[in-house]
Amino acid sequence: MTTAARPLLDRVAGAPISWGVCEAPGWGHEIGPDRVLTEMHDLGLRATELGPTGYLGARVEDVAALLAAHDLRLIGGFLPVVLHAETLDVKEVTDAAATLAAAGAEVAVLAARSLDGSYDRKVRLDDHQWRVLAGNLATVASAVADLGLLPTLHPHVGTAVEDRDAVARLLEASDIALTLDTGHLLIGGTDPVELAKAVPDRIAHVHLKDVHAEVAERVRSGAGGFSYMDGVRAPLYAPLGEGDVDVAAVVGALEASGYQGWYVLEQDCALTGEPAAGQGPLGDVRTSVEFLAGLAR
Known about the structure:
Layout: E1 12-13, H1 33-42, E2 47-49, H2 60-69, E3 73-81, H3 90-102, E4 107-112, H4 127-146, E5 150-153, H5 164-173, E6 177-181, H6 182-188, H7 192-198, E7 203-208, E8 210-211, H8 213-221, H9 228-233, E9 237-238, H10 247-256, E10 263-265, H11 282-296
Parallel strand pairs: 1-10, 2-3, 3-4, 4-5, 5-6, 6-7, 7-10
Antiparallel strand pairs: 8-9
Helix pairs in contact: 3-4, 7-10
């Protein structure tokens, strides 16, 4: 029996990073989870990614209770791992993944993080480090899959898989599924529409961002010491439909290929303080939800 396709809007989720909540050191002011989840729910979202470890609660039961109180389900979480180093703390990864699985998540979004966890420098690997990364990634992906989660790798600014060449090398070196992030791919020099059309069978999860191309180019070049964090504050990201990513073409290509995974609204922002009620990131996320509703129509 063929499973009926789920409508697009039933597969749209939120993420705490759209409210400025990030695992990177010194990112900015962190809005509390009750407000973030309330605003997600009020926008019509019914699912979210986890956010930084501990943000939604220290224990699995705390996370589950908080999500239930806001009528939200957990679909996945971001797990940055140093994959190019000889030593790999598999237990650290599996502990985090086990929390995701126990809280009902479906997807583990892995990233090949830098040694210090920041996103403000290039991570360039030699051939030996690529072999180490491929081996470690296979180990981590297997451990995550054993917990009942779908392992994916997220090309991401400031990680070992950032630019076009690194994405191509990853596709050759590993059979892991991808999290296609429209913003990070464009910043790294990969056309997300091209990738969505070229390897639809490798895409299992999607993060939707729109990007101001001029700011993205400044981040990519690093001219004058312009960092990723500088870009985020510029701002680098825009509500869907207001930047230079052809989000409609990405979604169209994926839907045409039969994609039935999640579209997670992710617009990285960094806050200097608590926004007034009804202000702050809420407006940008609302605009993005309305953009996707237009595509669905």
